[in-house]
Amino acid sequence: GLVKAYKDKYDDLSIIQLDAHADLRDSYQGNKFSHACVMRRIREFISQTAGVGIRNISKEEYKLIQHDEIPIISATEMHESSAWMTKVLDKLSKNVYLTIDCDFFDPSIMPAVGTPEPGGGLWYPTLEFLRKLAISKNIIGFDVVELSPLPVNNVSEFTAARLIYKLIGYISRFQK
Questions:
Q1: What is the pLDDT of residues 102-121, one digit of tens each?
Q2: How far, in Å, are 8, 25, 132, 138 from residue 128 at the CA level?
Q3: How many C-beta atoms surround the C-beta of residue 132 within 10 A?
Q4: pLDDT digit string (tens) for 5-56?
Q5: Residue 1 has what pLDDT?
Q6: Domains annotated on the chain, with CATH
Q7: Computed from CA positions of residues 118, 171, 48, 128, in that sequence, does the dihedral angle turn out positive or negative?
Q8: If residue 155 lies in a helix (H) or strand (E), which one and from where to where?
Q9: Cα-flanking dihedrals φ and ψ of residue 82, to 5°?
C-alpha cells in the first residue's frame, strides 16, 4: 500500500507508530490484514519501526518485540518522564512515516475509538513530541486512524481534526 510506495522512494524510511496496541500479530481472527496486524505486515519490508504509547500486547507480539529488538516506549515509560522522546527519535532514520492510532490517546481526551485503553497519551506531551519529530526528521507522510465517532459526543472528532491541523502546521513550519 501507501507505506510500500514510500519505501520505494526513500531507502532510509522508518515508521513511528503512536498506538495503544503493538499491531504486530501475524493474524487476528484468521485475517492477516486485520488492524491488529498492520505493523507486522509493514515490518515485512521495513525493519526500522518504533512504537510509542503501547499498553496492550499479546504474548506473540512480546516475543517478536524481544526477538527483533523493536523499540517500544510503553505508556508507563511515556508518563514517567519526557526522556523517551529523545530515545525514540534517536532510533529513527531521517525520513519518517508517522502513523497515529486514535487509541494512543487516553480515553479521557479521545473516547471515540474502537479499542480504548486507559493510561494513554495526553495532549500537550504528544504535541511536544510531534514538534520535536518535525524539527529533527523529515516527515514524508502521516495518517490518523481508528477514530470511531460516537453519536452522543463529538469531542474526539474535534480532537483528531485539531491534531491533524497541528501536524500540518509543524511540518509546514519546520520542514523546508
A1: 999 999 999 999 999 999 99
A2: 30, 30, 6, 16
A3: 17
A4: 999 999 999 999 999 999 999 999 999 998 999 999 999 999 999 999 999 9
A5: 79
A6: 2-121+133-145 (3.40.800.10)
A7: negative
A8: helix 155-174
A9: -90, 5
